[in-house]
TrEMBL record:
Protein name: T9SS type A sorting domain-containing protein
Signal peptide region: 1-18
Boundaries of every Secretion system C-terminal sorting domain copy: 384-452
Pfam families (UniProt xref): Por_Secre_tail (PF18962)
Record-linked InterPro entries: Secre_tail
Keywords: Signal
């Protein structure tokens, strides 16, 4: 029941924090602004292309006006996209009554059910033919009202879904009068791509796995919720490395977390396979034994998600493995049909900030299938012997060794030690035979070496 409550609260907060509908909207000028498929959020049957923004310019310039007094207007101008059921030929043409904006209409939003209702014959959003339960075959059959599900609503973007007979239409609308930015998920005006070029003052690449938070050409904006506060900054343990610091405040909810991107998610879906559904995240925690949860979902469809959880084992940095074949208790099993392209991390999941007190965490090196090595660290000068080793491994450095981590060939951390000395003696007698990776942090520098256990 706790997990169900968590999902409900998260969805309510997402919509509750959204901006007002009042204002003028258009279809967002981007690929996938409207589409249809068998399930909500699935546009596998049809989705518009970027070229359609030009081909159907008479459709993409239609205005949907939500007035503050509750009235609504379709403002189509001299032409709109007219389909066969309206007597047209799927081309630009004169708007056809009653879907021409001449009838009076009103709008209402239900923030409890996350729905938007237009009342008035001929009032619509997106495509005029879609109504609750079907598609029109003649204009005279237009219903008195239509209700859309508000899946996502921000200051600049709104995603709506409507169920028809045997499928779902999805519409993405852009609010007019909102200054375009490089991170709003919209192909604004003269932009040459989504969030790139044209009217944008800079061109940042959309984030994608693997993530190391290095460089200035990727949009590393993250999204906090539930009472966390995250910042991109230098790693306190190594100033040459860049990480995300996440503070779980005293006012944080038990499910407070951080999405590793803007709401638009990754540039491509995580390429999960039947044999590998693992994600690795390098985490710094002030406490050992706290649960860290990772959630993947489909952008705009939070019900299409999967969660897994594991505990920290040390104070400080460690590489954590998250296996989505092992779902967190009470959450949905992994569905291979979903194209997961959004990821969130939850520190000390299940404990609120008032109970735990304010805590600071860090994360870095997010990767799929295998751990991401941190190449930004300057290599430390260490020596390691014997190699191969049977029971004891000796490591020494010209500088103080802070920590040593050992990983097997599939990236699992099998040993993690705090040292605080220039020499370390490791008992590897219980290790299985094979190749291992040793990462040694010495005076803020890291060395990656290999040894063979015989």
């Amino acid at each position: 029941m706790k997990k169900i409550t968590f999902f409900i609260l998260l969805l309510l907060i997402s919509i509750g924090n959204a901006q007002s509908l009042t204002g003028t909207w258009k279809m967002s000028p981007q690929a996938g602004a409207f589409g249809v498929g068998p399930n909500q959020g699935d546009t596998s049957w049809f989705a518009n292309s970027l070229a359609d923004v030009t081909t159907r310019a008479c459709f993409f310039d239609d205005l949907y006006v939500f007035n503050a007094d509750g009235s609504f207007s379709n403002v189509l101008g001299a032409q709109s996209w007219i389909e066969g059921w309206q007597g047209g030929s799927d081309a630009c043409g004169t708007p056809v009554a009653p879907h021409n904006g001449t009838n009076a209409a009103t709008w209402s939003q239900n923030t409890t059910n996350n729905t938007l209702t237009l009342t008035g014959v001929g009032a619509y959003l997106g495509l005029a033919k879609a109504y609750n339960g079907g598609e029109l075959s003649t204009p005279t059959a237009a219903p008195a009202s239509i209700t859309y599900k508000i899946t996502s609503l921000t200051t600049s973007l709104m995603t709506l879904d409507i169920q028809i007979n045997g499928g779902w239409w999805r519409y993405i609308l852009a609010k007019q009068g909102v200054a375009p930015t490089c991170t709003d998920g919209i192909q604004n005006g003269t932009e040459t791509g989504v969030d790139c070029g044209g009217s944008c003052s800079a061109c940042l690449a959309q984030i994608n796995l693997p993530i190391n938070f290095e460089g200035t050409t990727t949009n590393y904006t993250v999204t906090d919720f539930g009472g966390t506060a995250s910042t991109l900054l230098a790693d306190p343990t190594n100033p040459s490395n860049t990480v995300i610091r996440t503070i779980k405040t005293t006012g944080a909810a038990l499910w407070a977390g951080t999405t590793m991107s803007t709401p638009s998610g990754f540039s491509s879906a995580i390429p999960f396979t039947a044999s590998n559904r693992k994600v690795y995240v390098r985490v710094w925690s002030p406490d050992a034994g706290i649960p860290v949860r990772l959630k993947v979902e489909v952008v705009g469809t939070p019900t299409q998600s999967c969660e897994t959880q594991t505990n920290t084992t040390v104070v400080g940095w460690q590489m954590m493995e998250f296996d989505f074949n092992n779902q967190a208790s009470g959450t949905a099993v992994f569905n291979p049909a979903f194209n997961f392209n959004l990821m969130s991390i939850f520190f000390n999941f299940g404990t609120d900030g008032a109970t735990a007190g304010e805590k600071t965490y860090y994360f870095d090196s997010v990767s799929y299938a295998a751990p991401l090595s941190n190449q930004s660290f300057e290599e430390a000068k260490i020596s390691m012997y014997p190699n191969p080793a049977t029971s004891t491994l000796f490591i020494s450095s010209l500088e103080n060794i802070e920590a040593i981590s050992i990983y097997n060939v599939i990236g699992q951390e099998v040993m993690n030690l705090k040292v605080n000395d220039s020499n370390a003696v490791l008992d590897v007698s219980s290790f299985q035979k094979g190749l291992y990776i040793v990462k040694t942090i010495s005076a803020g520098k890291i060395s990656s070496s290999k040894f063979i256990k015989e």
